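Objective 1b: paired records.
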Amino acid sequence: MKINLATLALFAAILPGTIFAQNTDKFYSGDKSQPFTEKVKKFNDWSISAGVGVPLIQSADLTSIKNGNGKNLFGYSAYISVDKAITHAFGLNLQYELGQTKQGLVNLDKDAGLGAKTKYQALSLIGDINFSNLLRRSDNHSPYRWALHGYAGIGTLGYKAYRQDEDSANPNNKLGSNLITDVKFLKTLSLFGQAGAGLKFNVNRRIDIEGRVMYVFTGDDNFDGGSGNVYQLDSYNGKEEQYSDNFINATLGITLKLGKHESHLMWHDPLQEIYYRLDVLESKNVDVEVCKKGDADNDGVCDDWDRQLDTPAGARVDGAGVALDADLDGVIDLKDKCVTVPGPVENDGCPKEAAPIANTTDNSSVTANIQSALKDLQFNFGKTTVRTESSSKLDLAANLIKSSNGGTFLLVGHTDKKGNDAYNLKLSQQRAAEVVKELEKRGVSSYQLKSKGVGEADAVAPETASDVERLQDRKVEVKSVTGAEWNALPKSDLK
């Protein structure tokens, strides 16, 4: 069975700390095991990152991308962050960023350019998901250098937005001469959010480089400088219907990983520690004391906690050392010739099949054998499909019907009393029809079978009874029907 790293990492986390112990070459299963703590960890989990970028206002009244004069107006940004890895797949970054955007449009009446710029500062807390570690397969033991990260976070934003007047002939009308909006950083609460993705490359144990693209939601309609101000400049905030001025920030950064260990947690595969340790032990011929009292039956479970000390050789066992018996018929899977179908011990765990009755016109005995074969037929919960473990029952019933010299049989579906009447009736009709379909797949002639559902009409156990008590009412009954009575029946009463 294939499982991803996140699942097996959980298993690794609850193993005794002997796997991860650093101060001993001998492992113990008992009270001498060394717990896996912060003190004995083999990886670093703190780092510092810094980078520069190019912000482009994408959605606002004044934009940086293909604005009115058909040009892209590039800004600049820089960030620094302190990063903490919580697990191998998740971390938190406290980031400070400052930058400047440039944006504008064209006034078609005067054919004059209108420009604006916004200087901003931001402080945010960002969640970091390492998808490459999160989705890493447990059977992938190779090292890797590239990692895909996803980011999302919130923070506070301060900015100053400036705009150039439309009168380009005025020599005093310069970009940045007119302050439009001033939101004080850390003094005025201006919340914003951002989300994006980055691709990291592990240069060495100390350095990572990363290309990242973030989409920033300012939650502010004045960030682009489109509002009017005391200088009687016109407002352009009605150009776009949406309120928030948003921008894209593409950055290139470098990460310095802190700590004394060789591996950083975000690059650390928890399973690699296990494989590494086992390889070291094997290469050094180190004596590994796994079980204090030994393993008498060699089933891989120490005698300290083995509940079955005489497990037969080759038998699969559960965590308590007990041989598996999938169908709970008292015959362990190693010796059970019908692993998924209960049967008596004297028949090697297989049900005793009734001998086919050939060339007879008396279908009463055949009907009884078919009914016995379909006894306790199991359906998937709340569905019409037959469970896989009941496949052998259908095989046996099909062989019996084919040996009946063309006998005709009505399959009647029943349900228990749990649920409303209409639903139970429909379910019984569908299940009976489903059994007919499964038998026809096994070679039974379609002229020999018809189906009917009666819902909970013949149910005995009350609705408040246990599931085990109501099991006897969930069944498919077989009746031999011939002559005029058979001809009067429809193929199925399923509506």
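Objective 1b, second protein:
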Amino acid sequence: MSMLHTDDVNEILTLMNPGDDPVLECMEDQANREEFPTVGHEVGAFFRLCARLMDAESVFEFGSRFGYSAYWMAPAIGPAGRIVLTEVDEEELDQARTYFEQGGYADRAVFERGDALEIVDRYDGPFDLVHLDHENERYLAGFETVREKVSQGGMIVADNVLHSGDAMSPADLRAVLDGPHSPEEGSSLAGIAEYYTHVIDDPEFETSVVPVGEGIFVSVRTEA
């Protein structure tokens, strides 16, 4: 459930969830056991919709954990598509591979262990869709590292940008953007504020905010 909209909207979004997928259910059970917050159904469904609307064939993900968000996008990219998952934890990357195999999508996934900022340098692109879900304070570095590899009309989506547990809230971000409040250097809030002020002024991208889950910044490349 998102704190960014009303209970009524939450109920409607729940009703509109795609049909049950036993692999997604297993992933969510694991997340509940480990008390790890996934992007959830509404954000996952939004990612899948973006991929379908764009006819995306190439996806790169900065930070994949055990593959939950990437799994949502996998059906939309088709058998000829490729989605690159990155994760520093070997065990979680192995779990992602297992889930993709169970769902029948392993043939369209590449599993890369290590730092996504280093891994993306090994790829020429172009990418139709890029998902930023690593450390908030490194979102801007991720954006700058991948921007020239995003196709015209391609999209960069940054997750967890309006709310993140006790780390930040929409009111906190608003206070920073309005000034003169200065967040602690290196904090999630500082990283998100820096990212937002950078991408909103970028002449090659058009950026908007989508209030689902914990908030998403969506940046579409309008100029190559």
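Residues 7-221 form a domain with the Rossmann fold fold (CATH 3.40.50.150). The first helix runs from residue 7 to 15.
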